[in-house]
Amino acid sequence: MKQKDALRIEIDDMEPAVFEALLHFVYTDSLPDDADNNVAMQHLLVAADRYGLDRLRLLCEAKLCHDIDVPTMDTTLALAEQHHCPHLRGACIGFIASRDVLGAVMETDGFKHLITSCPAIMKEILDKVAAVWSNK
Fold it and tell me: Which part of the chain is the BTB domain (predicted)?
């Protein structure tokens, strides 16, 4: 075995950029400077959850809460469900139920998929829509 091979560690199911961001957090206790990429934050949240980095998970969750938009709401909500992120889940449901975006959200394939795959979430969304819309 060559010395070079002995120093190589492979991490399955994680992109190098995500691992680099994870290491950045471990050494600096902060998100990387390029933390504006929604997809990268989603991957970093998954890594933080996998390795038990609760503070990083909370930081990613908070960042994602502020970056919810129509094209990403379905994947963000699914992520919140899979990784037990109640704050992010609530933010997604609130976003979907808002008057400004509900129509656009309902037109997406992601929303149509939510209807069939997550009936419990759909009930919560409808409850939130009713609450928001009753407070005209």
Answer: 3-66
Q: What is the pLDDT along the chain (136 residues), one digit of tens a residue?
A: 455 666 777 788 889 899 999 999 999 999 988 777 889 999 999 999 999 999 999 999 999 999 999 999 999 999 999 999 999 999 999 999 998 999 999 999 998 888 888 888 888 998 988 988 887 5
Token pair 């394939």 is at which residue? Answer: 109
**Is 8 a member of any domain?**
no
pTM over 0.70: yes
| Residue 49 in tokens | 């959850």
Q: Give the separation between CA 86 and CA 93, rounded to whole angstroms.
A: 10
CATH number of the domain within which 107 lies: 1.25.40
Query: Domain limits at 40?
Result: 14-67
